[in-house]
Amino acid sequence: xxxxxxxxxxxxxxxxxxxxxxxxxxxxxxxxxxxxxxxxxxxxxxxxxxxxxxxxxxxxxxxxxxxxxxxxxxxxxxxxxxxxxxxxxxxxxxxxxxxxxxxxxxxxxxxxxxxxxxxxxxxxxxxxxxxxxxxxxxxxxxxxxxxxxxxxxxxxxxxxxxxxxxxxxxxxxxxxxxxxxxxxxxxxxxxxxxxxxxxxxxxxxxxxxxxxxxxxxxxxxxx
Length: 223
Ligand SMILES: O=C1O[C@H](COP(=O)(O)O)[C@@H](O)[C@H](O)[C@H]1O
What we know:
By secondary structure, the protein is α/β, with parallel strands linked by helices. It contains seven helices and ten strands. It has helices at about 10-30, 45-50, 80-85, 105-120, 145-150, 175-180, 190-200; strands spanning about 1-5, 35-40, 60-65, 65-70, 95-100, 125-130, 160, 170-175, 185-190, 220. The strands form two sheets. Strands 1-10-9-6-2-3-5 form a seven-stranded parallel β-sheet, sandwiched between helices. Strand 2 (about 35-40), helix 2 (about 45-50) and strand 3 form a beta-alpha-beta unit. The chain is globular and about 40 Å long. The chain binds the ligand O=C1O[C@H](COP(=O)(O)O)[C@@H](O)[C@H](O)[C@H]1O. The site of ligand LXAUTJHC has 13 residues, from loops.
């Protein structure tokens, strides 16, 4: 694990956005298209805002969420709506979004309609992950109903997920799909998440799903 500590959150968000932009540019130099896989939640907004103004050939970038809450875009909990508001505008409006939500009552019913788009976008070039204080990442939650399958080598690329710590049903990329990434970054802020990171380093993937990604990840932290 490569832990990078920043003087403050502004420096973190700017530094991480610049690093990701460089990695996307490098991927586009070698391939026709690049896949950028991103978290939702409350933390990454400023990174997305900075990236949205960066000049690169966004028309060749596929942007895909790590996971989505099964709510439509009118909900303040929609990761898709967050992404449209903060990243997919300005220069980055030209990027292609890979949907992780469709208007069906449950993720099980929606998943077959989304799977091909996800498969076509894999492997991931640049993976940005978030983490909850419970050490979940994407929607790989400790105690989730399909966690064993999602962490296994037999997992499909996309799974429905329900967990005691998650208020609504979810859809998530499996660990294997996320681990296809060439570059992996974990974005965390605050003392509580820093303490959770230290706990995760010595914990199993069942107890701390984020631990699975730490060996390859650059972890970006500011208080
Ligand atoms: O529910 C989610 O939570 C995590 C962490 O979110 P944060 O609000 O603590 O930043 C996020 O990475 C994930 O994509 C999201 O669905």
